[in-house]
Amino acid sequence: MNQIQKIEKLLNRWEPILWILSLLMIVVANYLIFMVVPNERTMGAVQRILYFHVGSAIACYLAFALVFISSVLYLVKKNHFFDALNVSAGEVGFLFCSIVLATGMIWGKASWGTWFQMEPRLITFLFLWMIFLAFNILRAFDDKLTKANHSAVLGIVGAITVPIMVYSIKLLPASKQLHPEVIEKAGLPPVMLYTMCFSILTVIVLQFLLISMRFRIELRSKN
Amino acid sequence: MENPDTFQALFWGYSVIWLLIASYLLILRKKINNLQPPVNKEKSNDLEN
Q: Is the ipTM here above 0.95?
């Protein structure tokens, strides 16, 4: 049994568990978001976007951390296993990055009256989204022999943008920015906090399922 | 104080989330269907012999 067949066997064992777990968690998370948590006073119903908006943001940071690790390991070891992991995490990370951007804009329009504003956090996040858009375009159109190297380098550049984006919010005083710095300062009531933690966990489980599915496709296509 | 009516934005927000995830799952399913299952080299050698 070769290495790929061993990985396939492992994925065959874990994927059904991840499917069941993520479906159950999605049902429970939606029940909590729409049936249990009360409306926020100033923003109203739209504040419920927070639960999946923050969850998707954390999922995308995790995916980009995986891109960083697999990119470095690919450049050092030149093993296609790491390239497959790089593609999978980069693609799924981009999906969650797009979700954060889209829900953030919809939420911003409803509560701040604008889709987008030129402020450090929003600009750096858009920049991150563009880097991973380029990463995925590169995977689709670059030369077969060089795309693994090119995307590993671009993956490292993209992943380095994440901490810059996270700390960019400190560049301007909070009063001059629309995006809040940290959630704790807003003082979420316990029911909202627990629902948010559960939603974050739900999105992370879903993310691992998607990465696993994409990883299997990439491994099979390489053989 | 009454809550502002922002239900429409909430509807669009969650529609976008599930639309993107469902579309990606469909793309993955299409890719999986286009791929051949992995060949077990030991078994295929046995068959040849």
A: no
